[in-house]
Amino acid sequence: MAGTASPGLVWVLIEYRGAWPPNGFDGLDLDPEVKALVVSAARAEHARILLVRRPGPRRRLGPSSWAVLRHQGPGMYQQLWGGWEKDEDLAGIVSALASPGDPGLPPVILVCAHGQHDACCAVRGRPVGRALSERWPELVWECSHVGGDRFAANAVIAPDGVYYGGLDAESSVTTIEAHLAGRIHAGFLRGYTDLLPPEQAALVAVLGRFGPAGRHDYEVTETLGEGEHWRIHIIGRPPHPAHIDVELRARRTPLRQLTCRALAEGSVVVYEPTSVRTSSSPQRGSESSD
Predict the structure, then answer these.
(1) Residue 5 belongs to a domain
(2) Which has the higher per-residue pLDDT, 184 or 255?
(3) Residue ranges of the alpha helices (H) in 167-263?
């Protein structure tokens, strides 16, 4: 599971209370011109468009919400929120994507529950969404496909850009509670969306070796790959180790059914840590944990 967070620093959330088509926003029956404007603006910002709704019974009346969430750097998160009733109201997303957002807002907790894309996401995701919304009702949304259906239930913390997978109702509450307290654990972590897959896997290995840490307590400073072998250098803030070298081996899994709806078997690349060691400098290693 480590190293499977989909890359991205900008999210567009659109509350939609009707049925979600398998391809999400692209499949909605909206004004074509407005839809094209939103898609074009999102692509220009490399933003991901997700449909969202509150867990539980669907609210039918009143305006729906949209949001642009942006991760601009360590601890630099911005959000802009708006509302829409008519299709043309969604054009506000275009200007929001080109504008600075509001800092300091609490993160959004997204739980994939996109049953039309993959039944596993709905079966496993909806109980997680309900459990989390009982604890943090203002923060939690069900969302459309985020990737990695085989790891359902999946949760994404945005704009932090942190993916969790393999959750159930109980583990999701303890995992998100720790995250919000600045203690990210390795156990259900898929990765950070601002890192490459091998970097994500290396950081998960570091958290597993040295214990939980805050979102920006570690920084990847060097990534070297040759064939199936990777070497990642990570620096940490006190009280964490200052310099850590992680070595990984990339391998492709055997063919298997990757999702509930998969019509054919597939294979993916996984990154297995072979060594996690601290060092006094980026070049010299010691205290190996192989």
Answers:
(1) no
(2) 184
(3) 169-180, 197-210
Q: CA 159, CA 104: separation in Å to the nearest integer?
A: 11
Pair (166, 238) in one structural domain: no
| 10-54 tens-digit pLDDT | 999 999 999 999 999 999 999 999 999 999 999 999 999 999 999
Selected residue with higher pLDDT from 2 and 148: 2
Which residues form the domain of 174? 10-180
* Cβ-based neighbour number of residue 288 at 10 Å: 11
Same domain, 75 and 153: yes
Q: Can you name the residues that pair with 110 across neighbouring β-strands? A: 141, 156
For residue 85, the one-letter residue type is E
Does residue 71 form part of some domain? Answer: yes
pLDDT tops 80 at residue 61? no
DSSP for 7-36, please give it: P-SEEEEEE--SPPPTTGGGGS---HHHHH
Burial per residue of 219-254, b for 16 or more beta-carbon CB atoms within 10 angstroms, e otherwise? ebeeeeeeeeebbbbbbbeeebbebbbbbbebeeee
pTM, full prediction: 0.93
- Is residue 134 domain-shared with residue 219, that is, in the same domain? no
d(CA 283, CA 290): 18
pLDDT tens-digit readout, 175-188: 999 999 999 999 99
Kindly state whether residues 159 and 201 are assigned to the same domain.
no
Of the candidates 210, 172, 209, the one whose C-alpha atom is nearest the C-alpha of residue 188 is 172
Identify whether 189 is part of a domain: no
Q: Is residue 23 situated within a structural domain?
A: yes
3-state SS assignment for residue 129 = helix
| CATH number for the domain harbouring residue 108 | 3.40.30.10
Whether residues 172 and 72 fall in one domain: yes
Spatial separation of the C-alpha atoms in residues 251 and 269, rounded to whole Å: 6
Task: Say if CB 96 and CB 42 are below 8 A apart.
Answer: no
- Torsion 82-88-92-98 (CA) sign: positive
